[in-house]
Amino acid sequence: MNRTAIVTGAARGIGAATARRLAREGHAVAVLDLDESACAETVRDIRAEGGQAIGVGADVADATAVTSAVDRIVDTLGPPTILVNNAGVLRDNLLFKMTEDDWDTVLSVHLRGAFLMSRAVQSHQVEAQWGRIVNLSSTSALGNRGQANYAAAKAGVQGFTKTLAIELGRYGITVNAVAPGFIVTDMTRATAQRIGIGFDEFVARGAAEIPVGRPGEPEDVAAAVSYFCASDTGFVSGQALYVAGGPRA
Ligand code: NAP
Fold it and tell me: 225 in ligand 1 pocket by Cβ < 6 Å?
């Protein structure tokens, strides 16, 4: 069955790959990101393959922006019953150098963003008595040097996921988390730049630690998200699936 999906942070990286994948599977996709014009490439790619998509500009951490974005998606594509909370930012620093702004920004985008988006979408899912929410966590939820803010947010995402799975299960809604390891995107490029090494070397060092011997691509994560969004995976809920080429990366 074709449905309406929202993918946040879908202008690029994992979100863009996920939006393309869900569109290929027949869903109409709202490609949501901070800046609507940044969504144009993902929307163009989907339409070029015969899919249906619109770009929507909204800050997921802003309650008013979230409400009007979801209203617009309902009017344009129909009630959203698939939500992928993917938007994310990094503000890495060791604890003693981490500012309050570094902490608040990361917690706000990942946790408040997932909360606001899920709250806005759940009424449409309850109405449909069917829904899928997939939240992007990370292997950093297990702890990662320089990422106290991000690790706390990504571990929080897993608790949030399990709680929504308990609350929403009776309405035919599943809620799961995908926790990627090292994935080649602008986010990992920015990390290489921050620590002052070339991206090729950074990728090679990362791959050496990964049991399958390569870094992940956005499509690897999109495949896992797609599994949780499928109509025949309705008995799988409250799970965190690590997509890291091994137990962790
Ligand atoms: P990315 O390439 O940096 O893309 C993230 C997107 O989210 C960007 O387009 C960004 O927009 C958007 N965004 C940021 N703040 C937003 C906000 N407040 N409202 C709406 N959109 C916002 O990141 P990625 O690597 O694809 O990561 C996607 C998700 O996977 C994130 O949740 C990340 O934490 C998680 N993850 C990534 C990796 C990895 O190795 N790449 C590993 C584990 C988990 P701007 O460009 O305008 O900022």
Answer: no
